[in-house]
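tokens incoming
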């Protein structure tokens, strides 16, 4: 009899363990509606009249207290929300609209804290921006916690909220056609990274225009869709090349799927969805085919193809009497005089062409010699006309996974 009772107790124990496992499997299951999930990418699948919502499988905790979302496409309206919600949040509502939820909305920069009416909180967010959300773990045990939000690694603001019994789960909401984000539930952020954040911010200041390109220190990463020639990611420096800074370099860290990486010079108002070299007022060397593109979508054979680890460079051989333009009226009294800086790449090049017959040309529209390098060696030159305002270092990328490291001042120091 004891053996029979022991047998039944064993069977009952196994059944209870199986039930517990089933409950846990249901408990830790991600939920989403009107969204397509492909790996770490979420895209809206509704008709723009209904909200799509995603809720992660596990809540934030002391060991995992932060996550980030990169906006791949803002779609029609850019109605993307990032925040925290209870586990069984209604998936036909944006995060932040219902009680016990909170979210930062990209389209209007407002914070929604358990209310469909938001309050002004931070800047609006666009394609390529990273929105982060986290909790300060040191207040987690007190029944309240401080939820904070970030944009591109920089804190936007914070608010104290009660902690739901089942925790606070990462959530993303969307509400218009074409919206797409990339989710990183393992992202890290903290005050101990303040120094690196400051470094990133200082390098961001060097860029005047960024489209579908994410900056991290000297690293540029393509974050566009890469599905058509209109999905070009563009990074353009804030300052044009001049006699004091006439050369820059790019190292291919990751060629991505196709290595559609282009390095060159372009006018300040260059179209954001065109590779450098494709349109008027630009010239560029393309890594994937080794061709040079000069204001045309058709390139000419120019140099070797470039691969991971290669360093591509671009510079201008300015005539000795060339006078730099003053950009946006900035004062230049504290800058070195152009005549005191030698453009040694021009002075010591044996193939230098005489430009004496063009000395009297107007500064605007003057011809200069643009040169390109690969791993420190000049591979070719092209005579071009400088557009009004000057030539700005410009980098284009067009396929998933592409990353480059940029040095805008390799000859300084």
């Amino acid at each position: 009899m004891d053996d029979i009772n022991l047998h039944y107790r064993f069977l009952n124990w196994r059944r209870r363990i199986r039930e517990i496992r089933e409950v846990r499997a249901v408990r830790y299951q991600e939920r989403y509606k009107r969204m397509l999930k492909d790996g770490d990418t979420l895209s809206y699948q509704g008709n723009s009249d209904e909200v799509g919502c995603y809720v992660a499988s596990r809540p934030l905790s002391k060991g995992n207290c932060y996550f980030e979302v990169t906006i791949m496409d803002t779609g029609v309206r850019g109605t993307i929300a990032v925040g925290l919600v209870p586990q069984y949040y209604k998936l036909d509502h944006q995060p932040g609209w219902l009680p016990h939820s909170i979210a930062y909305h990209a389209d209007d920069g407002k914070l929604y804290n358990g209310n469909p009416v938001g309050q002004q909180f931070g800047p609006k967010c666009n394609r390529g921006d990273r929105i982060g959300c986290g909790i300060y773990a040191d207040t987690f045990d007190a029944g309240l916690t401080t939820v904070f939000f970030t944009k591109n690694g920089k804190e936007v603001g914070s608010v104290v909220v009660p902690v739901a019994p089942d925790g606070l789960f990462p959530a993303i909401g969307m509400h218009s056609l074409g919206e797409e984000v990339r989710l990183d539930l393992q992202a890290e952020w903290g005050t101990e990274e303040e120094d690196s954040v400051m470094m990133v911010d200082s390098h961001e200041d060097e860029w005047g225009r960024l489209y579908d390109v994410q900056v991290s220190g000297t690293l540029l990463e393509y974050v566009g869709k890469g599905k058509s020639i209109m999905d070009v990611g563009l990074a353009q420096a804030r300052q044009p090349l001049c006699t004091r800074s006439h050369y820059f370099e790019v190292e291919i860290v990751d060629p991505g799927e196709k290595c559609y990486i282009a390095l060159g010079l372009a006018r300040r108002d260059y179209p954001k969805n065109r590779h450098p070299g494709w349109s008027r007022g630009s010239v560029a060397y393309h890594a994937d085919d080794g061709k040079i593109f000069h204001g045309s979508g058709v390139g000419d054979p120019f140099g070797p193809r470039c691969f991971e680890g290669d360093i591509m460079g671009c510079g201008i051989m300015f005539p000795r009497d060339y006078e730099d333009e003053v950009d946006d009226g900035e004062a230049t009294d504290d800058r070195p005089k152009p005549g005191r800086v030698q453009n040694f790449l021009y002075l010591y090049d044996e193939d230098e062409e005489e430009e004496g017959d063009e000395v009297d040309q107007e500064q605007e529209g003057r011809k200069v010699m643009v040169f390109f390098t690969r791993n420190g060696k000049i591979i070719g030159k092209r005579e071009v006309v400088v557009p009004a305002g000057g030539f700005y270092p410009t980098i284009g990328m067009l396929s998933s996974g592409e990353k480059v490291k940029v040095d805008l001042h390799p000859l300084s120091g």
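note: The chain has two domains: 29-184, 204-322+365-407.
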